[in-house]
Amino acid sequence: MTSETKNTLNRRTLLGVAGGIVAAPLLGGCATPAFADQGTPQHQPAAASGRRKLGSLEVSSVGLGVQNMSRTYHTTIPSRPEMHNIIRTAFDRGVTFYDAAEAYGPWEVERILGEGVKPFRDKIVIATKFGWNIDQQSGRRLPGLNSRPEHIRQVVDNMLKRLQTDRIDLLYQHRVDPQVPIEDVAGAIKDLLTQGKVLHWGLCEMGLNTLRRAHAELPVTAVQNEYSMLWRGPEKAVLPVCEELGIGFVPWSPLGVGFLTGAIDEQTRFAPGDIRGNETRFSPENLPHNLALVVLLKQWAERKQARPAQVALAWLMEQKPWIVPIPGTTQMAHMLENIGASAVRFTPAEAAELNRAVRAIEVRGARLPAAVQAFSDVEAPRKSGRSPS
Ligand SMILES: NC(=O)c1ccc[n+]([C@@H]2O[C@H](COP(=O)([O-])OP(=O)(O)OC[C@H]3O[C@@H](n4cnc5c(N)ncnc54)[C@H](OP(=O)(O)O)[C@@H]3O)[C@@H](O)[C@H]2O)c1
Fold this sequence. Notes:
This protein has 14 helices and eleven strands. By secondary structure, the protein is an alpha/beta fold.
């Protein structure tokens, strides 16, 4: 190995664990074998120590998506103590933004998160989501959506118990309910705000007019939509509206559901029950073409002495200062790597070059199965007696 290669590897390892190296002495975090290169002087600043604003809500520049902590995309069940360990280590490394939902599990992920963050709950932002039709007695998922105000109130009371807290910092509507005017949803959230049970609200995958109406009723803190190099749909209209209204943006699946990490190749076939097996962007016909994105990421990873996942997350953060990705993981090494992303910086010329290269790759295949996609971009019905805005 040449000394140049060795230095590159050292810096890569360090970027991967950047948060830990700098934050551990300050925050009392424990060392792990991943910190073997601590003596190298080229380390980057603690990535997750940067802060960003979603509307008026301040969060770490990279959050942690905990959706898969009760069941992974590969359909395995992660170790609960290890999930608590990842949640706590993320906090030790500067992460203050945790993303859950009632539907994850259902219920189980909120319980895992509540247990994990208990020692430092007051120092973090908990985001969770209501909106799927989940029976409040059994926890069974029933067909369709439910954003009726009385249901939202009941769901929030149950969320607070599972999360072991007295307030939800950021509560999203998971999908727009085509039966319930958004003004009624905003009214329910307003009541919850008055009671102190909810501090901020947001919407996911909503129709644009619904977003405007929601914001006019009660200022929206954040929109959460899928956004990554693999799915750039929000660039067309959602991000411009967020910018116009001063709403923050939280990209879900910021790593392209794992694709942008380099973990998926032409040979990859998904386990039965892994949703990615039903997304044609990952089908055997489309994968070879779409892997051009991974080739690009690997080139830039080499250039920036980083990891492909870090470049993918840094690219998102480069798009707007009010974008905060929430990469999801059930592996400590991946969490440490991901929070190292904001140590990756682009000069304006590099950012323009990378954007051009990303835009030149046309992703083939649909992002979601049609039955799932049908829940996106939905407009809520008008409240009777209100004229169209
Ligand atoms: N609002 C919505 O409708 C919605 C929808 C989907 C997701 N979300 C939120 O967004 C969060 C993130 O999205 P996501 O989990 O769907 O997708 P993602 O963050 O794009 O990717 C997660 C996948 O990548 C793998 N991974 C993560 N970091 C990695 C690394 N450094 N190297 C290699 N593999 C890595 C994970 O597996 P390992 O566990 O093995 O690391 C997992 O399979 C979720 O947790 C959830 O909170 C919201």
